[in-house]
Structure formats: C-alpha cells, structure tokens
Write the structure tokens for this entry.
Amino acid sequence: MAKRKSSKRARSRRPASQRTQGERSGEPTSSSSSVAAPERPASGQPSPSRPRARDRAGARDAAGERPRAPWHPLPLSELLILVGVIGVLVSVFLREELPAALLAASIAAVAIGTFEVTLREHLGGYRSHTVLLALVPVVVFHSAVLLVAGAFTSVPRWVNIPLLALDIAIFSVLYKLLRLRHLDAKRERLLAR
C-alpha cells in the first residue's frame, strides 16, 4: 500500500505533458511502464540531437579524394620525401665519412616534399594545414633576419624580443588568410561534388 502511494506522489509531481495517457486518466500502471521512452517525431525523421551514422560517415569523407599534383602519374613529392629520409639516415649512421652538406640537402628534400603536399591539400580544400603553412614563412623570415644581421655584426640577444613580436604579427595575419582560403576551397570542393 505504501508503494502505491509513493508512485502516485511521483506521478503527480511530473507535469501533465510528461505523464502517459494511463497516468492522466488515473488508471494504475506497472512500475516498468512508468518510465516513458523518448518520443520520435511522427514524420519518421531521426531526432535532431542524434545525427544518423550515415551523416557522420558523410561528414568524414566530405572532402573527397586528395587533390592531384600537376605531375600526377609520377609521385614526385613522395619520392622526394623518401630520398630525403634515406639521406638523413645515411648521414646519421655514417657521420664521419660524409659531409654535412648531405644532411642539409636531405632535410631540405624532406621539407620541400612535405611543404608541397600540405600546400596542395590545403589550397585544394582537402585538409587544413593552416598552422604549418603559416609557421613556415615566419621561421624562414626569422632565420633570414638573424643570419643576415649576424653576417655583418654580432647580434645581441635582446633583438629576439621585438623580432618575436613581429613573428607573432606575421603568423596571425597569415593564419587568418590561410584559414579563409581553406574554407573557401572546401566550400567549392563540396559544391562541385
């Protein structure tokens, strides 16, 4: 008897819109049916809070196929990266016998191949590489300023502070421009499908 009274109190505390038809009319209900399942819209559409698995899969490969290079049949960038990695490994293991120029050329080959692939994917709207593409010119600029200044005079350490502020400003501008360019390219790519 006490169990019935507690269930009636629990039912009466819920707003009328959340009560089932049997609770509104006063009919006794079993304890298992007192928990109502979430209602689905009558049109058969899924609830807006849970997207379909097909929609999630479509969002994942919405970018489509990777953009092709102008020299498409030949994987030039990938070969450049491979040759650069082999060159780095050879120069690390045979440190004494080979010049440092081999190491520098190998690192440059990997950097050029990687930069080309990331730039092509970014500008093609395939995948965003905004941070990397904005950071590369900043690093090149900072290094060039220090190398040029160091060639003619000794550079004090305090020069890095205003140079760092300039680096941050250049990075911010490049980041915004590259991000907008990628979003435009991605929108064009999705409309072309």
User: Anything to note?
Assistant: The CA atoms of residues 77 and 113 lie 4 Å apart.
